[in-house]
Amino acid sequence: MIVAIVGATGTGKSGLSLDLAERLAARGTPAEVVNADAMQLYRGMNIGTAKLSLEERRGIPHHLLDVLDISDESSVADYQVQARTAIDDILARGAVPILVGGSGLYVSSVLWNFTFPGTDAAIRASLEDELASSGPGILYQRLRELDADAAKAIGPHNGRRIVRALEVIELTGEKFGSGLPDDSEPWRPVTILGLQSVRETLVPRLNARVERMWAQGLLDEVRGLDRARLGVTAARAIGYAQAIAELDGELSEVDAIEQAAALTRRYARRQVGWFRRYPAAHWFDADDVDLVSSALGTIDS
User: Fold this and answer.
1) Which residues pair with 191 in a beta bridge?
2) Which of 137, 151, 217, 260 is most buried, most CB within 10 Å of its CB?
3) Are strands 96-100 and 190-196 parallel, antiparallel or unpaired?
């Protein structure tokens, strides 16, 4: 049995995973955490991704943290293989794998039987040239005309995924799809725990989270990265892009923080929409004092 903990940024997914792992271990069932946050795959990107430090992990084994260099481009197809291998290894040890993260496509690629079409270098290069010269707007409109569901799921600002969707459509002649699960059987038996917070609680928490990144030294972390080697994915991560702009004199600190906070709030809304469509997910109030006991009861049922 896999346990998956999903939900918007700032709802306490990591904390719940640690609490559940400790409670399971106290009953004689070890548990290990598998990361499903795309940005936490990157080495050196810690503050802006709210990555747990080694000490904060409470001695619980964590997998797929710090596995990519900042120059690497993340691939959900590669992640699927790595995450499923880690999960099968955990199950073989008699432990419970707890998949934790808010990157919807990454979570979905593990839980459901996704297959990933190949690539075509010429098609990809042409689309990427168009993205570089014109931005994502025109490409996004094209995607809306060809596959409205995919466009809605991806959003108008994620140029890399828009390019990939258009590449697949041209390659296969079929719709890319939203990346959301249907009612088919999951890859492995799974209990999905969803965390939610009311907007009045979540928005101030997200704003405070972004301000805390700056207070904890995000600018120093970015200064320590080899900017010349930063790949597109790492450079465009929320918080990091704004910190880079501040360091380059393009944004003031106030504007950088506000822009990062606005993008974080927008991302959280997209996460809510994505995970709300998961079949058979069990939803919990992230601020419920009995959250851990309730979640544990769901796993046991």
Assistant:
1) 3
2) 260
3) unpaired
Find, among 299, 209, 158, the residue nearest to 11 by Cα.
209
- Pull the structure tokens for residue 62: 């964590």
User: Which residues are CB-neighbours of 113 under 8 A, at least 6 positions away?
Assistant: 184, 185, 186, 187
Residues pairing with 35 in the sheet:
100
d(CA 88, CA 146): 37
Q: How far apart are CA 282 and CA 262, in angstroms?
A: 28
pLDDT tens-digit series, residues 263-276: 999 999 999 999 99
Contact between 68 and 39 (Cβ < 8 Å): no
What is the distance, to the nearest Å, from the Cα of residue 112 to the centroid of all Cα atoms in its chain?
A: 16
* Cβ-contact 97, 86 below 8 angstroms: yes
3 state SS for 196-225: ECCHHHHHHHHHHHHHHHHHCCHHHHHHHC
Is 286 or 159 the better-scoring residue by pLDDT? 286
Alpha helices in 2-69 (DSSP H): 13-26
**Where do we find the tokens 């390659």?**
171
Q: What is the DSSP string of 109-150?
A: HHHS--------HHHHHHHHHHHHHH-HHHHHHHHHHH-HHH
Distances in Å between the Cα of 33 and the Cα atoms of 14, 36, 75 are 9, 9, 20
CA distance 7 to 13: 7
Average pLDDT for 106-113: 92
Within 10 angstroms of residue 74's Cβ, the number of other Cβ atoms is 19
Q: Assign residue 84 a region: left if phi > 0, alpha if psi is -120 to 50, beta otherwise?
A: alpha
At residue 75, the 3 state secondary structure works out as coil
Residues 6+ apart with CB under 8 A from 109: 76, 77, 79, 80, 83
Strand locations in 44-103 (E):
62-63, 96-100
